[in-house]
Amino acid sequence: MENNSSFNLVERIDLWINDLNYKPYITEADSEELRTHLFDIIEDLKKAGLDDEEAFIIASRRLGNISDLEPNYWEENSPIHQMRKSLIIMSGVLVYFLLYFFLLFSSKLLLIVLHNFETDNITAILWVKRYLVTSHFLIIILIASIYYLENLTLKFIENIHLKPRHTVLLLIITIVFGFTDTCLLPVAKNIIRNGIPIGNHFYDIYFYFNYSFPLIICFGFVILYYKYFKKSKVTY
Question: In Å, how far are 112, 136, 138 from 173, measured between CA atoms?
Protein backbone atom coordinates (compact mmCIF):
# COMPACT_ATOMS: atom_id res chain seq x y z
CA MET A 1 0.00 0.00 0.00
CA GLU A 2 1.36 3.44 -0.95
CA ASN A 3 2.33 5.96 1.68
CA ASN A 4 0.36 9.18 2.01
CA SER A 5 2.85 11.78 0.78
CA SER A 6 1.17 14.54 2.82
CA PHE A 7 1.53 12.61 6.06
CA ASN A 8 4.76 13.19 8.02
CA LEU A 9 5.16 10.25 10.41
CA VAL A 10 8.03 11.70 12.43
CA GLU A 11 6.23 15.03 12.87
CA ARG A 12 3.02 13.33 14.01
CA ILE A 13 4.89 11.19 16.53
CA ASP A 14 6.68 14.28 17.87
CA LEU A 15 3.33 16.06 18.28
CA TRP A 16 1.93 13.02 20.06
CA ILE A 17 4.91 12.96 22.42
CA ASN A 18 4.69 16.71 23.02
CA ASP A 19 1.07 16.31 24.08
CA LEU A 20 2.22 13.67 26.55
CA ASN A 21 4.92 15.96 27.94
CA TYR A 22 2.25 18.52 28.86
CA LYS A 23 0.66 15.99 31.20
CA PRO A 24 1.96 16.66 34.73
CA TYR A 25 2.03 13.00 35.78
CA ILE A 26 3.89 11.72 32.71
CA THR A 27 7.64 12.16 32.87
CA GLU A 28 10.05 12.56 29.97
CA ALA A 29 11.30 9.02 30.57
CA ASP A 30 7.71 7.73 30.31
CA SER A 31 7.06 9.63 27.08
CA GLU A 32 10.29 8.35 25.51
CA GLU A 33 9.39 4.80 26.49
CA LEU A 34 5.98 5.26 24.87
CA ARG A 35 7.68 6.68 21.78
CA THR A 36 9.73 3.48 21.48
CA HIS A 37 6.63 1.31 21.86
CA LEU A 38 4.81 3.41 19.29
CA PHE A 39 7.66 3.05 16.80
CA ASP A 40 7.78 -0.72 17.32
CA ILE A 41 4.04 -1.10 16.71
CA ILE A 42 4.19 1.16 13.65
CA GLU A 43 7.04 -0.86 12.15
CA ASP A 44 5.13 -4.10 12.66
CA LEU A 45 2.03 -2.62 11.04
CA LYS A 46 4.03 -1.24 8.11
CA LYS A 47 5.50 -4.71 7.54
CA ALA A 48 1.91 -5.96 7.34
CA GLY A 49 1.28 -3.57 4.44
CA LEU A 50 -0.16 -0.44 6.08
CA ASP A 51 1.04 3.01 5.12
CA ASP A 52 2.49 5.52 7.62
CA GLU A 53 -0.77 7.25 8.43
CA GLU A 54 -2.78 4.08 8.95
CA ALA A 55 0.01 2.54 11.02
CA PHE A 56 0.24 5.64 13.23
CA ILE A 57 -3.52 5.80 13.82
CA ILE A 58 -3.78 2.13 14.75
CA ALA A 59 -0.61 2.16 16.89
CA SER A 60 -1.68 5.24 18.83
CA ARG A 61 -5.09 3.64 19.46
CA ARG A 62 -3.45 0.48 20.73
CA LEU A 63 -1.39 2.44 23.22
CA GLY A 64 -4.49 4.35 24.23
CA ASN A 65 -5.70 7.93 23.99
CA ILE A 66 -3.53 10.55 25.67
CA SER A 67 -6.29 11.26 28.20
CA ASP A 68 -6.44 7.54 29.02
CA LEU A 69 -2.69 7.21 29.56
CA GLU A 70 -2.36 9.72 32.39
CA PRO A 71 -4.25 7.71 35.08
CA ASN A 72 -1.84 4.82 34.50
CA TYR A 73 1.06 7.01 35.66
CA TRP A 74 -0.88 8.99 38.29
CA GLU A 75 0.03 6.94 41.34
CA GLU A 76 3.48 5.92 40.14
CA ASN A 77 4.68 9.45 39.39
CA SER A 78 2.81 11.31 42.12
CA PRO A 79 6.02 12.02 44.13
CA ILE A 80 7.67 13.41 40.99
CA HIS A 81 4.68 15.67 40.38
CA GLN A 82 4.81 16.94 43.96
CA MET A 83 8.52 17.65 43.52
CA ARG A 84 7.77 19.64 40.36
CA LYS A 85 5.19 21.71 42.22
CA SER A 86 7.71 22.35 45.00
CA LEU A 87 10.33 23.39 42.43
CA ILE A 88 7.89 25.87 40.86
CA ILE A 89 7.09 27.40 44.26
CA MET A 90 10.75 27.56 45.25
CA SER A 91 11.70 29.03 41.87
CA GLY A 92 9.01 31.67 42.23
CA VAL A 93 10.45 32.71 45.60
CA LEU A 94 13.96 32.77 44.15
CA VAL A 95 12.83 34.88 41.18
CA TYR A 96 11.40 37.41 43.63
CA PHE A 97 14.70 37.71 45.53
CA LEU A 98 16.67 37.64 42.29
CA LEU A 99 14.71 40.61 40.97
CA TYR A 100 14.90 42.36 44.35
CA PHE A 101 18.69 42.12 44.63
CA PHE A 102 19.13 42.91 40.93
CA LEU A 103 17.29 46.21 41.33
CA LEU A 104 19.28 47.01 44.47
CA PHE A 105 22.72 46.36 43.06
CA SER A 106 21.96 47.81 39.61
CA SER A 107 20.67 51.05 41.16
CA LYS A 108 23.84 51.38 43.22
CA LEU A 109 25.87 50.58 40.11
CA LEU A 110 24.00 53.34 38.30
CA LEU A 111 24.94 55.77 41.07
CA ILE A 112 28.61 54.77 40.81
CA VAL A 113 28.64 55.09 37.02
CA LEU A 114 27.05 58.54 37.15
CA HIS A 115 29.54 59.62 39.80
CA ASN A 116 32.45 58.46 37.59
CA PHE A 117 31.03 60.63 34.81
CA GLU A 118 31.26 63.55 37.27
CA THR A 119 27.52 63.92 37.69
CA ASP A 120 26.65 65.85 40.86
CA ASN A 121 25.25 63.77 43.71
CA ILE A 122 21.79 65.33 43.68
CA THR A 123 21.30 64.54 39.98
CA ALA A 124 22.75 61.05 40.42
CA ILE A 125 20.40 60.22 43.28
CA LEU A 126 17.49 61.62 41.26
CA TRP A 127 18.34 59.19 38.44
CA VAL A 128 18.50 56.33 40.93
CA LYS A 129 15.04 57.30 42.18
CA ARG A 130 13.68 57.42 38.62
CA TYR A 131 15.21 54.02 37.90
CA LEU A 132 13.56 52.36 40.89
CA VAL A 133 10.20 54.05 40.27
CA THR A 134 10.31 52.94 36.63
CA SER A 135 11.01 49.37 37.74
CA HIS A 136 7.85 49.49 39.86
CA PHE A 137 5.77 50.56 36.88
CA LEU A 138 7.29 47.81 34.74
CA ILE A 139 6.35 45.23 37.35
CA ILE A 140 2.79 46.57 37.46
CA ILE A 141 2.61 46.34 33.65
CA LEU A 142 3.92 42.76 33.84
CA ILE A 143 1.28 41.81 36.41
CA ALA A 144 -1.45 43.46 34.32
CA SER A 145 -0.30 41.61 31.19
CA ILE A 146 -0.37 38.29 33.07
CA TYR A 147 -3.87 39.14 34.29
CA TYR A 148 -5.34 40.11 30.93
CA LEU A 149 -3.35 37.90 28.52
CA GLU A 150 -4.75 34.71 30.00
CA ASN A 151 -4.18 32.40 27.05
CA LEU A 152 -0.54 33.37 26.66
CA THR A 153 0.01 33.06 30.41
CA LEU A 154 -1.46 29.57 30.60
CA LYS A 155 0.51 28.48 27.54
CA PHE A 156 3.71 29.81 29.11
CA ILE A 157 3.01 27.98 32.38
CA GLU A 158 2.30 24.75 30.52
CA ASN A 159 5.65 25.02 28.75
CA ILE A 160 7.58 25.34 32.01
CA HIS A 161 9.53 22.15 32.66
CA LEU A 162 11.62 22.97 35.70
CA LYS A 163 14.38 20.65 36.82
CA PRO A 164 16.39 20.77 40.06
CA ARG A 165 19.39 22.21 38.23
CA HIS A 166 17.29 25.18 37.08
CA THR A 167 16.35 25.95 40.68
CA VAL A 168 19.98 25.64 41.77
CA LEU A 169 20.99 28.01 38.96
CA LEU A 170 18.40 30.56 40.14
CA LEU A 171 19.75 30.21 43.68
CA ILE A 172 23.33 30.81 42.54
CA ILE A 173 22.36 33.89 40.50
CA THR A 174 20.37 35.27 43.45
CA ILE A 175 23.32 34.79 45.80
CA VAL A 176 25.64 36.52 43.28
CA PHE A 177 23.25 39.48 42.99
CA GLY A 178 22.92 39.72 46.78
CA PHE A 179 26.69 39.54 47.26
CA THR A 180 27.22 42.19 44.56
CA ASP A 181 24.72 44.50 46.27
CA THR A 182 26.54 44.05 49.58
CA CYS A 183 29.88 44.88 47.94
CA LEU A 184 28.53 48.00 46.20
CA LEU A 185 26.84 49.43 49.30
CA PRO A 186 30.06 50.79 50.93
CA VAL A 187 31.08 52.34 47.60
CA ALA A 188 27.69 54.05 47.27
CA LYS A 189 27.89 55.28 50.87
CA ASN A 190 31.34 56.70 50.23
CA ILE A 191 30.02 58.67 47.24
CA ILE A 192 27.29 60.46 49.19
CA ARG A 193 29.12 60.77 52.52
CA ASN A 194 29.92 64.49 52.10
CA GLY A 195 26.33 65.74 52.15
CA ILE A 196 24.06 64.79 55.07
CA PRO A 197 20.80 65.93 53.39
CA ILE A 198 21.80 64.11 50.23
CA GLY A 199 22.71 61.04 52.25
CA ASN A 200 19.36 61.09 54.02
CA HIS A 201 17.58 61.26 50.67
CA PHE A 202 19.67 58.32 49.46
CA TYR A 203 18.66 56.18 52.46
CA ASP A 204 15.02 57.27 52.15
CA ILE A 205 14.89 55.95 48.60
CA TYR A 206 15.95 52.46 49.68
CA PHE A 207 13.82 52.61 52.81
CA TYR A 208 10.68 53.12 50.76
CA PHE A 209 11.83 50.61 48.14
CA ASN A 210 12.11 47.90 50.79
CA TYR A 211 8.42 48.39 51.52
CA SER A 212 6.96 49.28 48.13
CA PHE A 213 8.57 46.46 46.14
CA PRO A 214 7.28 43.58 48.33
CA LEU A 215 3.84 45.22 48.57
CA ILE A 216 3.49 45.43 44.78
CA ILE A 217 4.60 41.81 44.35
CA CYS A 218 2.26 40.56 47.09
CA PHE A 219 -0.67 42.60 45.81
CA GLY A 220 -0.11 41.30 42.28
CA PHE A 221 0.21 37.72 43.54
CA VAL A 222 -3.11 37.94 45.42
CA ILE A 223 -4.91 39.29 42.35
CA LEU A 224 -3.45 36.63 40.04
CA TYR A 225 -4.02 33.85 42.55
CA TYR A 226 -7.72 34.55 42.94
CA LYS A 227 -8.20 34.98 39.19
CA TYR A 228 -6.60 31.65 38.28
CA PHE A 229 -7.91 29.88 41.40
CA LYS A 230 -11.47 30.73 40.39
CA LYS A 231 -10.66 29.70 36.82
CA SER A 232 -9.39 26.32 37.98
CA LYS A 233 -12.54 25.78 40.07
CA VAL A 234 -14.72 26.47 37.05
CA THR A 235 -12.59 24.24 34.82
CA TYR A 236 -12.46 21.29 37.16
Answer: 22, 21, 21
157-214 tens-digit pLDDT: 666 667 778 888 999 999 999 999 999 988 888 887 755 566 677 888 899 999 999 9
Chain segment 128-170, per-residue pLDDT in tens:
999 999 999 999 998 888 888 877 776 676 666 677 788 889 9
Which of 216-223's residues contact partners 24+ apart within 8 Å by CB, and which partners? 216/136, 216/139, 216/140, 216/143, 217/96, 217/139, 220/139, 220/140, 220/143, 223/143, 223/147
Per this entry, what is the length of the chain? 236
pTM of the model: 0.67
* Distance set, CA 197 to CA 122, 126, 200, 205 (Å): 10, 13, 5, 13
Provide the residue ranges of all domains of the chain, joining segments of one domain with +. 9-74, 78-235
